[in-house]
Design goal:
This protein is α+β, with helices and mostly antiparallel strands. The protein has helices at about 1-25, 55-60, 115-130, 135-140, 160-165, and strands at about 95-100, 145-155, 175-180, 180-190. β3 and β4 form a beta hairpin.
């Protein structure tokens, strides 16, 4: 009977390891985003004033598969990994609010979502309004916008969003940031 239990335990352990390797896409993660997701700045002349996620990801060598939607419980990054690209002395956690503006092709965008240029125009308008009335701008954003999204630690968000958020002064609002889920406008509460 003990032999049978050992065989079953070994098979379960092997299956779990195989599942983890399969979910992670193999033993090594890609250090740069796939070429199809990287848009050059010259291809997007209308995006002036938008923090380009793809360029920031490439510069920071961020693993695209590890984005916000994939991390339910963040692991504690170690030492230099924590807040890559942020200057020493940056806060380890912040409280923030977010305005989401979705567009066709963005993750979880509803059917009939606005075009990306329309979303960018709205995002710029809301970012400007958010400087004086963040609560009002949140109500004009899409579902998922929150005046107070709570406290978040470094190492959870995509690098472009994280860098913008953790570099903001308390009470300040970012420019629109292009993310896989649409444009984000973040406000650092504390």
């Amino acid at each position: 009977m003990n032999r049978w239990a050992s065989v079953v335990s070994g098979a379960v352990l092997l299956a779990l390891v195989g599942l983890l390797v399969w979910k992670s896409g193999g033993s090594s993660k890609s250090a740069t985003p796939p070429a199809s997701s990287v848009e050059s700045r010259s291809e997007r002349p209308s995006d002036a004033g938008v923090l380009p996620l793809a360029e920031t990801l490439a510069a920071l060598k961020f693993d695209v598969d590890g984005g916000f939607g994939h991390i339910a419980q963040p692991t504690e990054p170690s030492g230099d990994d924590l807040g890559a690209g942020l200057p020493k002395g940056s806060p380890k956690t912040v409280r923030f609010g977010v305005i989401l503006i979705q567009y066709r092709g963005a993750e979880a965008a509803p059917p009939g979502a606005r075009s990306k240029p329309e979303a960018l125009a709205l995002a710029r308008t809301l970012a400007e309004a958010a400087n004086t009335d963040f609560k009002g701008a949140v109500h004009r954003g899409d579902t998922g916008s929150m005046e107070d999204a709570g406290r978040i630690q470094r190492g959870v968000l995509e690098p472009a969003v994280e860098y913008a958020l953790f570099m903001l002064a308390r009470g300040s609002v970012s420019e629109p940031i292009d993310t896989p889920r649409g444009f984000w406008i973040v406000r650092r509460i504390e």
